[in-house]
Amino acid sequence: MKLYDASGSIWELDYRGITRSGFEGTAVLTPASLGSPDVVEVTLPRYIGCDFVTFVCGGKGVVTKNSTSYDIYPTWHAPVYTCSVAQSSFEAHVTWELYSRTTNKLIGGGPWNNLRQLCVDMTAATPYDWDVDDIPTGTKTLHWVVRWPL
After folding, report:
1. Does any domain span residue 69?
2. Would you say residue 38 lies in a domain?
3. Distance of CA 5 to the CA centre of its chain
4. What averages of pLDDT result for each successive group of 10 residues across the chain (150 residues)?
């Protein structure tokens, strides 16, 4: 069921409570420097307090190096909330796993919490260079949806 308020904003009513549309989106990770975990921070369009739930996910990617293909999987972790009287936001952390397509096994000593470190480790383990630009942008993209109770 959709409800409209006086300003024409859409509110959705479902079995989990009332949510406002527009509180979903994507954010692209800028890989952190070596030694720091990769983190994406999302600031919500308006203040909703600290009583909200965020669902996060991302899609796998394929990296091909020297005719060898690897599947790279990001696992996005539960958000850390940073709320103030002026804004609501969250941080999502990610870990990376890399699988060989030929053996379907985890490789390279992962999982990693830093994409740059994954590239350094894979460059050391294989006869070719890995760079964060080799990782598809879609793999570095966080998809998020926020819900909160009425």
Report:
1. yes
2. yes
3. 32
4. 52 55 86 96 82 88 90 90 80 94 84 95 88 94 82
